[in-house]
Amino acid sequence: MSPPTATGDETGRPGADNRRQLAGRYARRRRWGRVGLYVAVVLLTLFAAFPFLWGAITSFKANQDLYSRDNNPFLFNFPPTLEHVRLLLHDTPFDTFVTNTLVVAVLVVLITLAASIPAAYSLARLDLRWGGAMGIAIFFVYLIPPSLLFISLSRVVSQLGLQDSRWALVVVYPTITIPVSVWLLIGFFKSIPRDMEEQAMVDGYGRVGAFVRTVLPLSFPGIVAVVVFTATLSASEFIYALAFVSRTSQKTIAVGVPTELVRGDVFFWQSLQAATILVAVPIALVFNAFLKRFVAGFTMGAVKG
Amino acid sequence: MTEGRRRYLLDREGVLGPLLLAPAVVYILALVGIPFFLAVGYSLSDVTVGDPSFDYVGLRNFRAVLDDPVFLRALRNSLFITVVTMVLVLVLGKILALVLVQDFRGKWLVRFLVLLPWTTPVSLATIAWLWLLDSLFSPIDWTLRWLGLLEGNLHWLGNDTLAMASVIAVQVWRIVPLAAVIISAGLIAIPPDINDAAEVDGAGFWRKLFQVTIPLTAPVMAVATLFGAILVFTDLSVVYVLTRGGPVDATQTLPTWAFFRGIQGGDLAQGAAVALFLLPLLVAMAVLILRAVRRMETM
C-alpha cells in the first residue's frame, strides 16, 4: 500500500495543511479499522466455536454438576472427571464406529482415485469431442443429492446383498466422491503445461508413461485435496449410512454416535460431547493444513472446468 | 500382438480417451443413473418394503402426496429454511471472509475454530447443538435466567417457532464457514491495484465494500450461496438429529419426510415421490451456478 501523503505530492494540489488533515483521517480510519477487526474476530469465533467449547467443558463434568439447573453451566462446580471419556472409550461401541469409518474411508479413497484420475486426465488433456458436455454432466451428477436417491438405492443395495453392512457404504460413497474429484483434478491437470508431457514423449515414453512421470507428481496437491475431501465425506455422510446400515457393529461414526449413545430417552451427554470433540478436532486440523490447496483446487476446477 | 503395437494403440487419443473415462462413467451410470430412473419408476408404482412387486399406478402417489398436509408443510418448510438460511449465510459469510483475509494475531487458531462447524460431521455437530438447546439444562436459558430475563425454561425444541429458529441457526452456523472460504478465495483474486487505486481516491471501508469488493466478488458469492443452498435444501441430518421433524411435523422437510415415509414407513413409492420434489429446484440452482461460473471465467 502506498503512503497516503504521496498522492498530494504527485498532483501537487493539496497544501501542507490539507495533507496533514488527510494523514490524520487515514490514521484514525486505520485505528478504528483495527478495533473493528478484533471485535469481529472475537464475535465470529465465539459464534462458530461456542457449541464445541461448551461441549468440551461438559464432557468432563460430574453428573451431580451437570444435572442441576442452578449450577453455572460454564464452570466446574464439582471437580472435573474423566469417567465419561473412559466410558466412551471402553464401554461403548465408539471404537467399532471409528474402525468402521477408517475402513470405509480408506477403501472409498482408493476407489475414488482409481476412477477419477484417469477420467480427469482424459477430460483435461485428450481433446474428446464430447469432453465439454461430459464435464457439465459430471457437474450435474455431483448435484444429485443422496436425499433424492437413497430410497431406490436401498433396493439396489439389498439386491447386491450388501444390506446392513459397511460394504454398502464402500460401494455407494464413490458415487458422491468421483464427480467432485474429477471436477477438482481437471483444474489441476489443466494447470500443468503440456510441454512437459510432450518432452517426456519425445524422450520415448508413451502417453501413459509420460503422464505417470510428469503430470502425476506435479498434481500431488490436487490428489491430496481429493484424499482429504473423500476421507472427510466418508466420515460425515449421514443419509446413506442411516438408511442402509442399522446393525451396531457396522455403523460409522456419523450415524453410530447419535443413534447408539442414546438409550431411549437417556442421553449420555458427557460421552456424546466427548465423542464429538474427539472426532471434530482431528478432522479440522487436517482440513486447516490443506485448506489452501483445497480452495485452489475448488476455484481452478470451477473456473477452468 | 507386439509390445509396440499395443503402445501405438494406447497412444491414439480416440482409443485412450474413452478407455480412461470408462471406469468412472460406468460406476456413475450403475449407481446414480439406475437408482435415479428406479426412483422415478417407484414414484409411479405401488412398491413397498413388504410388497416389492412393481405395479404401475400412474400419478396416484403424486396426487396422494399433494393431498397430504404434512407434505405441504414439509415443502413450505424446506423452501423457508433454505431461503432464510441463505440470506443469513450471504451476510455472515461475507463478513467472515472479509475478516479471514486480514492479518491479525492468532489467525491460525481463529481459522481453526471458525472452520470447526463446517469440517465436523454434521450429525455430530448437531449433537453439540442438541445439548445446547436442552429443555432443562440449556446454557442459553441459564444465562437468560441469570440476567433476570427469564423464569423457568424456553423449551427450544418443544415450541414450533423456536424449533424452526433452531434448525435455521444450525444450518447457518454450519454453512457460513464454507461460504466464507469460497468468498475469500474470490477476495484474494481481486487485483491489489484496484483496492489501492480506490484507497488513493479516498474511498473508505464502506464505499470500497459496496463499489469495489461486492461487485467484483458477486459471481463467487453467487456460487457460494447456491452451493450452500443445495446443501441445506437436501440435508436430512440436522432436522433428524435435532427434532425428528417435530414438534408434530412443525420442522418436517422434504428429505426427512421422504425418509420417514419411504424407509421407516416402508412406503418406497410415496417416499420416492416426495424426494422427487427436490429435483426441479435443484436443476434451477445448478443452472444458476453454471451461469455464475461462466461470469467468473469472463472476468
Mind explaining what this structure looks like?
The complex is a heterodimer of chains A (305) and B (299). Chain A is mostly helical. Chain A has two domains: 5-59; 92-304, MetI-like fold (Orthogonal Bundle), CATH 1.10.3720. Chain A has 15 helices and two strands. Chain A has a two-stranded antiparallel sheet. In chain A, a hairpin with a 2-residue loop joins strand 1 (262-263) and strand 2. Chain A starts with a helix and ends with a helix. With 299 residues, chain B is mostly helical. Chain B has one domain: MetI-like (MetI-like fold). Chain B has helices at residues 3-11, 13-43, 60-66, 69-100, 107-119, 122-132, 139-146, 160-188, 192-200, 205-233, 237-242, 254-264, 268-276, 279-298. In chain B, helix 2 crosses helix 13 (268-276) and helix 8 (160-188) packs across helix 10. The mean pLDDT of chain B is 84. The chains are: A mainly alpha (305), B mainly alpha (299). At the A-B interface, helix 2, helix 5, helix 6, helix 7 and helix 9 of A face helix 1, helix 2, helix 4, helix 5 and helix 6 of B.
- Architecture (CATH level 2) name of chain B: Orthogonal Bundle
The value of Rg of chain B in angstroms is 25 Å
* CATH topology call of chain B: MetI-like fold
For the record, the CATH architecture of the largest domain in chain A stands as Orthogonal Bundle
| Spatial extent as radius of gyration of chain A | 27 Å
CATH topology of the largest domain in chain A: MetI-like fold
How far from one another are the termini of chain A?
34 Å
Q: How far is the N terminus from the C terminus of chain B?
A: 51 Å
Care to count the β-strands of chain B? 0
Report the CATH superfamily of the largest domain in chain A.
MetI-like
Q: Please indicate the count of domains of chain B.
A: 1
Mean pLDDT of chain B: 84
Report mean pLDDT of chain A, rounded to a whole number.
Answer: 82
Beta-strand content bin of chain A: under 5%
Most extensive interface between two protein chains, with residue counts: A-B, 101 and 101 residues
Q: What is the number of strand segments of chain A?
A: 2
* Tally of DSSP helical segments of chain A: 15
User: What is the element string of chain B, with H for helices and E for strands?
Assistant: HHHHHHHHHHHHHH
Uncertain stretches of chain B: none
Low-confidence stretches of chain A: 1-12, 301-305
The side-by-side strand order for the widest beta sheet of chain A comes to 1-2
